[in-house]
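Chapter summary example.
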Amino acid sequence: MTEPWSGERVREFCGRLFGAMSPLLPQRFRLDRPIVPVVRLTGIIGFSTPLRPGLSLAGIARTLDRAFGIRRAAAVALAINSPGGSPVQSHLIFRRIRELAAEHKRPVLAFVEDAGASGGYMIACAGDEIIADPHSIVGSIGVVGGSFGLDKLIARIGVERRLYTSGEHKAMLDPFLPENPDDVERLKKLQRQIHEDFIALVKSRRGAKLQGPENDLFSGEYWTGRRALELGLIDAIGDLRGTLRERFGEKVVTPLITAERGFLGRRVLGVAGGEVTAAGNGTGLAADMISALEARAIWARYGL
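The structure predicted for these 304 residues follows.
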C-alpha cells in the first residue's frame, strides 16, 4: 500500500511541475519574473475632440483598477504625456491613483515623456517618484483661462446681441458682450483659489525636495527635465524601460494596460456615461475644427 505524501513532498512536486510548465505560461503569470504594469496617460485633460478623446476619470478608471489589481505587481508605472487641461479631472485622476496605491500597497513610478505640465504635472505628483527625459517639459504650476471678445465684430456686421437671463452674473464673460472688469476679477478670484490648492498639493507630495523661491516654482513657468531635477520637481532623469530594468532586473515584465473593450469593440468606461465617437455626435465639421485648433493651441504653449 502506497504511503500518503507528506506536505513537504507535495510542495516539492508542485514546484517541479510549475517549473516545467513555466516557459509555456504567458509572461505576466510566470513567478520567476517581476511585473510592473504600465498605464499610459496621454492627451489634454478633460478636453475631447471626436477623433482624439482627452483624459478623464471616466475614461481611465477601469484601466487604473486593472493595473493596480494585478497580483504580484512590484509597482505600477504611469507613462504621462499631457500639457494639462481641466483642474477637476486632473485632481480626480490624481486622487484615484493615490487611493488605489494605498489600497493595494503599490509604489507608483511616474514617467514624464514630452510634457507633464499643469494638470499633467498634477497627475505626475501621484507618483512616489517622478522620472523625466532631460528635454521633457515639466511644471507650469498655475491656472489659465481664455476666451474671445466678439462684441465689436458683431456690431460691425450689424448683428445685435439679445440675451435674457435671471441672475445678476448669469451672463458673466459672455464673448459677445463688452468685457466687464468686475466679472474679470471674479474669474481671477476663482483662479487664485484653484492655484492655491494646486500649490498645496505639490508641496504635500514633493515636500523638502523642492528647491528655489516659491515665486518661481509656482509662477506658472515650466522647465526642461534637467532643470526640473535641480528644482526638485522630479526625482531622476531616465526613461521607462531603462529605469524599470535597472530597478527590477532585465527580466521585468511591463504589460501595457489598456481600456477594456466590449463585445462590439467599444471602450468600456469606468463610470457611467456616454462615449465620444467620430460619428453621430452632432458636433459638426466647424466645431470639430475649432476643437482641434484649441487642442493644438494648448500643446503650442510649451513649444510642442
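To summarize the output: The two ends are 77 Å apart (CA to CA).
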